[in-house]
Predict the 3D structure of the following.
Amino acid sequence: MQITMTINGDEVSRDVEARVLLVHFIRDQVGLTGTHWGCDTSNCGACVVWLDGTPVKSCTVLAAMADGREVRTVEGMEHADGLDPVQQGFMECHGLQCGFCTPGMMLTTRWLLDHNPDPSEGEIREAISGQLCRCTGYDNIIKSVQWAAAHAREEAVTS
Amino acid sequence: MTATEVPMSAAGNPIGFGRMMRKEDVRFVRGKGNYVDDVNLPGMLHGAILRSPYAHAKIVSIDTAAAEAHPKVKAVITGAVLDTLKLAWMPTLSYDTQAVLATDKVRFQGQEVAFVVADDRYAARDALELIDVIYEPLPPIIDAKRAMDPGAAVIRDDKEGKTDNHIYDWEAGDQAATDAAFASADVVVVQDMLYPRSHPAPMETCGTVAHMDKVTGKLTLWSNTQAPHAHRTVYALVAGLPEHKIQVISPDIGGGFGNKVPIYPGYVCSIVGSIVTGRPVKWIEDRSENLMSTGFARDYHMRGEIAATRDGKILGVRVNVLADHGAFNAVAQPTNYPAGFFHIFTGSYDYPVAHCKVTAVYTNKAPGGVAYACSFRITEAVYLIERVIDCLADELKMDPAELRMKNLLRPEQFPYTTPTGWEYDSGDYPRALQLALDIAGYPALRAEQAEKRANGELMGIGLSFFTEGVGAGPRKHMDILGLGMADGCELRVHPTGKAQLRLSVQSQGQGHETTFAQIVAQEVGIPPEDVEVIHGDTDNTPFGLGTYGSRSTPVSGAAAAVVARRVRDKARIIAAAALECSPDDLEWSSGRWSVKGDPEKGKTIQEIAMLSHSNLELPDGVEGHLDAQAVYNPPNLTYPFGAYICVVDVDKGTGQVKVRRFIAVDDCGPRINPTIVEGQIHGGLVDGIGMALMEAIAFDADGNCLGGSFMDYLLPTAMEVPTFELGETVTPSPHHPLGCKGVGESATVGSPAAVVNAVMDALKPYGVRHADMPLTPAQVWMTMQGRPFRTDMAIE
């Protein structure tokens, strides 16, 4: 079947089998390999992307379900004027080690900060509780999100 | 050198040890990492594995005709096909054999039976459904304690003359002296415990892309292996491929934790698939395949016995282990150590005698055994000793902190030879334990606990103290399949003073591209941003045994320091030639050789690099250029240590354990990049909390794996773990060039005992001394009823 969607602002049109998962569509057919595949059961969240502005686990969404909709992946986080504060925060606070869960973590926490610019530690933990990281122990992920929140506030003050 | 004395580069990085952002993160935060599943080659095909639904069954027949007729299928490979190539079986890292694809029978659920190569990953999976295998089920051996029963089904009847499921008996220490100490002791405490089968479960599963170029005869293998050089040699030896025509590339790896050390059947099948089809073949496990078939960890049934005086002086420890190795003995560890480094179980304490005996058996479970950041089974050893210490404290009605402090080795005893033969290099244990107690506010915690107990609330405080031996290892003692565990390193300084460092080890997330650049910066003064670290590619790096057992910094980090110092020494000669003085007249400071007493007169390392390539006349025998290489053969292991304290609250109604606080004091010697070290510790602590409370792979009576997905094999999320409170002491290793000891596995090794000790401390009012991990709500609740259950079997 023919599907068309917008990925990171670019229109993408492909002929796909109806059963193809969104994660495989993004990775294998569009070639954006920043979205990862870590489990088959919606537990790990390595595959999180945004679908019409909401984080979804793309291993349990059919590509066909994204037809006519907007997808945002990790490759769409960086702006013309630099990294998203969440990306910068993960670098500043050592919020990643192997990097495999990182794209999903960053997309979820970007969404969190868009809806709650000053989250508590507990709110950050809850926001990423649908995602697994085996390396960091989450401690520095929390700090990374707090860094991003603080620096978004600074920008808001200075601009 | 303290952090404040380290000069900073123009880019703001320390020219040496200190905190800096990781160089590799620039690609990872943009989604530009290159993991094995990101490798796509023109014409690439996809492989999938058909696996056994039975734990133990005879294969009557395999019919692949329908799969072969599938329009998108390019090849179907069975054990019979591999047999014609003499590849149906392969050697394991423990000198056993393992079926690549089963020929005679299947020996665990999830075992590899056939391999399909097709145009895409969906078609390959479709074709698996078309293969018709007829099995004749056999009685499975699931309980390791029944594996040696008379008449038990023989799992490894492929081995000539094999009539039972015994693998080996192994012992260490002095049995007679230990028995004598026990016979005359005031107090003897015996405790049985299971360290359950768990799984490293890195977020990225195992996989490979194999490309055999028929024209050049070169095999290129992208594989997320932790040991690319060792794998290359094994492929050469097993498959008869010429080693100079094999290139193994470990690209970015999404976590390893030991899971990615062995060679798995999927790798071999991918290679054969590429040879058969003439096209590149990609094979990537799904999560269930990863959990059910690749290297598990632990599975040690242990009996620990401790003898002591009435006032709490330990006299000796005795251990018996029944080791469940699964269907093939595929443990990855040095040859002379079949039980890994388990005999370091004497721990951090001062007593004269100890003995252990380990018996290993086959069961109808997946192979593996040394994995999950265990430092070659030191995890099991630390758990054993730290649990029996707490049991002894309970018996003596002594505070566990006091009992530990009374028995810890003292600083003046180092170097210290343990009753089982390890030579600990350096340590100040009481200082580390005291610091942990201070951070915790230990007396106040005990007071709070007493108050809570009086109110009927369950709060527990658990301690553990660990000593690890890492950085395997001295090549006269340690090898894997005959390959000595030394590591090469090579440093090339380009004419403009920028450098490339080539490592034999590689990162699975530890940050080698940053820390190894910092080692070069520290030793030769080139800023870390000017040092490119090249790793994970056998064609472009010197030989070495890989990254596991916390060995990168102790072995390869030492090699990096050695090559950097060789470059610095050569730079001195070149600088002297340029300055027309004797090398002896020069002194080194901040990346520059200058004339003693005349510091204005000197040459920076960058200037010397250009001079080394110039037509400057050099002394006889001195070659141009500024390069060096070395192979580092560690004289001993390094022995990091630490003191951990865990505070838990237990819900009386549900048995739910909440980890309220976790204090971790680690001593790994000087920290190259403290931020990275702390990150390693955080990750290990969560591993330990996971093992203590959530993670286990159990089996039902038919051998069905009960931990085959993340719905059943639970990893901690951010909700189950606290913010960690870290402390640090620094006791350098006397034999490592940088004094560094390695830290990657310390927290995984040290933390499970602290959590379990805390929970058992909370449950003291119920009069139960021990319950096996994982301490799930069900297990805790049953323990409160006085009936903790076996966690390796399905609950009856």
Q: What stands out?
A: Chain B touches chain A through 61 residues (CB under 8 Å). The CA atoms of residues 50 and 114 of chain B lie 5 Å apart. Chain B is about 25% helix and 25% strand. The mean pLDDT of chain B is 97.
